[in-house]
């Protein structure tokens, strides 16, 4: 079967030279592009660092260390930055700490924002007095000068209600433990004259649905004065940052999640029933608003984050707190999100596993970087997931420590691949 492609014909050698020149002049002339060819090797440069915006010396690398759980210290970010620049001195490396809003929040705020720590002693979950601190960042004017009024207070509820404050055997049945200490911490923060209070809530020892907190704020034993408490806190901007989006009730709620900590099923079912009775009392005293379209009530016990801290999140939402994911909130609060465009993101965590992929600092920062088309790599002491799981976050590679290697050495090794010397 004859080919449909046109046959290329050349000028016969017997043609006179002038005739051949005339035939050549009849060939189509394609316009010459003013821009260099996109496949020019001179324009491509190194394949891995081309996406990072070069600064005065080279590509910009943003290192973000996951300080959640206090498994990595403040020195980890500096160590990774030093290791990276040791291999790639032409890069501009920025080191940042981030957190998920759980235990250790105030330490990160003090390190990153220069907060002032105000000590306070409040009742713990079992009633014993425990020390805590409120981190306060003063308000500034447009030039960055302290104006001496307002500001933001950051609270770490784990300091006054954390699981480490209670014997392990007591945690198997948390009935009788109270969240009243969180209310004392709130009042102390408000008395400092701040405009905004950020409350970090993670796993806590108490599982009272926030009743201890509300009663300490003046709601009464039967919570009848809850509307008055809500009005009292209406002028204070409360921000609830949580490590989980679990609701108060349901199969994915606060009581059901206690099974992960060794609480028996019969105990979790009893606690779930108590939480249900609590929400009925609250909805009778403080009727939930109704949706304008459907007419159905907005059930506060089903709101994301209401199950945080065994119901502390629920209580804070009842008095007007706005809720946000802790890691996502701190990306903006610490100014990390604005540093992601045009850089190479290096996430440093203790363990890179299925939990890390879905929640926390690594997941939220990688999703933010994906929105800017910023390449992301993960450095961890242990990697327990494959590349396919990380690709959903935009993570291009994950690297774990070798035997006898520290994070600085791992960073130096990975830098050879991702920011090679030109």
Automatic annotation (TrEMBL):
* KW Cytoplasm (keyword) present: no
- Please give the SUPFAM superfamilies that the UniProt record associates with this protein: Glycerate kinase I
Q: Name one GO biological process term.
A: organic acid phosphorylation
Keywords noted in UniProt: Kinase, Transferase
Gene3D superfamilies given for it?
Glycerate kinase, domain 2
* UniProt GO MF annotations: glycerate kinase activity
Region named Disordered = 1-27, 289-309
- This protein's source sits in the domain of life called Bacteria
> PANTHER family, per this entry?
GLYCERATE KINASE (PTHR21599:SF0)
**Protein name (record):** Glycerate kinase
């Amino acid at each position: 079967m004859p080919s449909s492609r046109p046959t290329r014909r050349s000028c016969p050698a017997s043609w006179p030279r002038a005739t051949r020149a005339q035939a050549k002049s009849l060939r189509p002339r394609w316009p010459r592009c003013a821009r260099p060819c996109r496949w020019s090797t001179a324009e491509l440069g190194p394949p891995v660092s081309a996406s990072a915006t070069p600064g005065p010396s080279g590509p910009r690398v943003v290192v973000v260390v996951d300080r959640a759980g206090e498994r990595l210290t403040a020195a980890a970010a500096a160590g990774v930055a030093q290791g990276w620049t040791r291999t790639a001195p032409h890069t501009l490396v920025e080191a940042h700490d981030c957190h998920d809003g759980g235990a250790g929040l105030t330490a990160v705020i003090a390190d990153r924002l220069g907060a002032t720590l105000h000590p306070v002693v409040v009742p713990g979950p079992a009633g014993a007095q425990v020390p805590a601190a409120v981190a306060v960042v003063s308000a500034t004017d447009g030039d960055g000068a302290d104006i001496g009024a307002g500001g933001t207070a950051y609270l770490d509820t784990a300091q006054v209600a954390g699981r480490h404050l209670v014997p392990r055997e007591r945690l198997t049945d948390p009935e009788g433990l109270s969240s009243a200490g969180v209310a004392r911490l709130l009042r102390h923060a408000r008395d400092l004259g701040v405009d905004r209070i950020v409350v970090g809530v993670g796993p806590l020892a108490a599982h009272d649905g926030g009743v201890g907190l509300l009663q300490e704020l003046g709601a009464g034993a039967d919570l009848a004065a809850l509307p008055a408490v809500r009005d009292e806190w209406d002028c204070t901007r409360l921000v609830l940052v949580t490590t989980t989006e679990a609701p108060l009730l349901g199969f994915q709620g606060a009581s059901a999640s206690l099974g992960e900590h060794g609480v028996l099923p019969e105990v979790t079912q009893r606690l779930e029933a108590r939480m249900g009775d609590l929400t009925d009392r609250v909805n009778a005293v403080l009727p939930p608003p109704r949706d304008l379209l459907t007419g159905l009530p907005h059930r506060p016990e089903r709101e994301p984050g209401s199950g945080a801290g065994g119901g502390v999140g629920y209580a804070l939402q009842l008095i007007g707190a706005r809720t946000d994911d802790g890691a996502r909130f701190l990306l903006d609060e610490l100014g990390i999100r604005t540093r992601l465009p045009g850089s190479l993101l290096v996430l440093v965590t203790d363990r890179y596993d299925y939990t890390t992929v879905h929640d926390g600092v690594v997941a939220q920062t990688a999703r933010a970087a994906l929105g800017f088309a910023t390449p992301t790599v993960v450095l961890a002491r242990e990697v327990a997931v494959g590349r396919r799981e990380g690709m959903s976050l935009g993570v291009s590679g994950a690297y774990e420590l070798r035997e006898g290697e520290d994070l600085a050495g791992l960073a130096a090794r990975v830098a050879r691949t991702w920011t090679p010397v030109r």
